[in-house]
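Batch manifest, entry 17 of 40.
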Amino acid sequence: MNVSNHIVCTDFPCTDITTDGYTLPSIEIDPAQVNIFMISEAPPHNAGDYFYASDNSFYLQTTLQAFNQTGADVSSMEDLLGLGIYITTAIKCGKTKYSVSAKTIKNCSKLLEKEMELFPNMKTLLLMGDVAIKALNYIAKRQTGEKVIPSGSTYKIRKDEYSYRGMRVFPSYLQTGKSFLIEKSKQKMIAEDIMNALEISK
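Output type: structure tokens
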């Protein structure tokens, strides 16, 4: 299955994004083998930095670093896929500002919802950053009327247990971007969340 053949935005209703950066994972993947669904924030400004662009892409390199800090021996996207890990973004278009509006997150969560439905055997959701957390909450509120993740600072709420449709949900921090490389405390928390997700998904 190629996800980009199943998910498409047809009307681009958002006003604080650039459609030039519209990106979906375009790889052949067996959806039945995916048990960890990792949601990051948005595609990079440079398409060559996207997770699936190459094994040297910036987004992938910081993600691999995050996994290696758990003790996982991974050096490529193929290695991550082999562990049953699928990575996508909550927002499918490029950002024009540092932050993304709630309206845009809500709009794009409809695509993310359809994307999640393609993977029937997911055991854990890794929500990497506030945008991913908000996106899942929009999905959950449409389906159940309630949020999955409560409001509050991530470092305060991340130790509690959350679930969504039988999956464990981990609210965490963004594992992409230059800030990841310098914020050692967040690196440690991200590694802990990934390690827990890996353990549950065995």
